[in-house]
Amino acid sequence: MAADKRIALGLDVGGTSFTVGAFDADGAQACDKLANFPTPVTSRSEDVLSALEGALRSQVEGCEAQISGVGVGIPGVVDPLTGHVFVCPNLPALDNTPTGSILSERLGLPVFMNNDAYCATLAELRWGAGRDVENLVLLTLGTGIGGGVALNNKVNRGPRQILGEIGHLVLEPKGPRCGCGNHGCFEALAGRDGIVNRTLRKIQEGKPTSLLARLGDDWKAVWEDIPKIVADEAGKGDSVAEDIMAETGFWIGVGICSAIVLCDPDLVIIGGGISAAGDVLFDPIRRTVEARSRISRGKFDVANIVRAELGRDAGVCGAAALVWERLAQG
Ligand SMILES: [Zn+2]
Fold first, then answer.
1. pTM for the whole thing?
2. How many CA atoms lie within 13 A of 8 on its CB side?
3. What are the residues facing 21 on neighbouring strands?
4. Cα-to-centroid distance, 278 and ligand 1 (Å)
């Protein structure tokens, strides 16, 4: 690689692992491959900071390009201007630490930080499924439902950084309890536990299903994988699994209808593990939005509900995109 080539390092920090990668200003991966590291299990901020620093240094070694800066996505609340981490629920060792300024001083590089949902949304907006639009809603389906909103080609998190926390839209006030303490949140209905509870209920109805053999006797052992197992069996035509996906897709569609009237997006992008399920999930989502998004000037075109393109790499891509965004702002 030419020595005058400029790159940005991205660092996506998670509670169990973190990922580092180098990207040029067009989003092409530069230098080494993406590298994954386990997040240290510790209450000491210094242990985590040294691990992050070491991972970033390992990516730089042998790379001849000039590094313009480092972007870091954090699963918590961070001041994007100073890089101060206020609270990081899955990695409390970083609570109340000036992570950005410490890493910047140690590496001798500018470090820019933001929330991980912001980074994932920025990645899809710049380099992913949303690269040709300026307004989008991203839904990331997983254990919970994360999300992000971009308007006028900018990711918006709002003054208190809650804009786009779409998983906590209340869709059914008397519905199941959510981790946030409320009832009937989008996440409680269509996140992992929502799908697992639906599966349990459907199986108890007693219809024959291939799910019984796939789940075995110890559900707890496969709990994390249940949404994927249901999606697989639905894809093979099991009618009980199809019902579970249809009901899940219905709730996702209802959530999207609310997002559409709040954000007026050009595109709704769906990411996260279960987005790989394909038509068994997207068909009921599109049917629901088709039937329920009758707004005064015409319906939302359901062809604009699409799958995310960057997958698991969205976080690390977006962290690097953060560098180019902030440098362009001067
Ligand atoms: Zn909630």
1. 0.92
2. 28
3. 10
4. 26
Can you give the length of the chain in residues? 330
The model's pLDDT over 227-262, given as tens digits with 9 standing for 90+, comes to 999 999 999 999 999 999 999 999 999 999 999 999
Q: What is the whole-number distance in angstroms between the Cα of residue 6 and the centre of ligand 1? A: 41
Percentage of the chain lying above the pLDDT 90 cut: 78
- Where does CATH 3.30.420.40 sit in the chain? 6-122+313-329, 132-309
Distance (Å) from CA 286 to ligand 1 centroid: 24
* CB-CB contact of 34 with 27 (8 Å): no
CATH (one of 3.40.50.720, 3.40.50.300, 2.40.160.60, 3.30.420.40) for 132-309: 3.30.420.40
Tell how far the Cα of 169 is from the centroid of ligand 1, in angstroms.
Answer: 7
Helix or strand or coil: residue 117? helix
CATH 3.40.50.2000 fits 6-122+313-329, yes or no: no
The owner of tokens 């307004």 is: 135
CA of 307 to the centre of ligand 1 (A): 24
Residue with tokens 């707004």: 295
35 alpha carbon to ligand 1 midpoint, in Å?
33
CA 88 / ligand 1 centre spacing (Å):
18
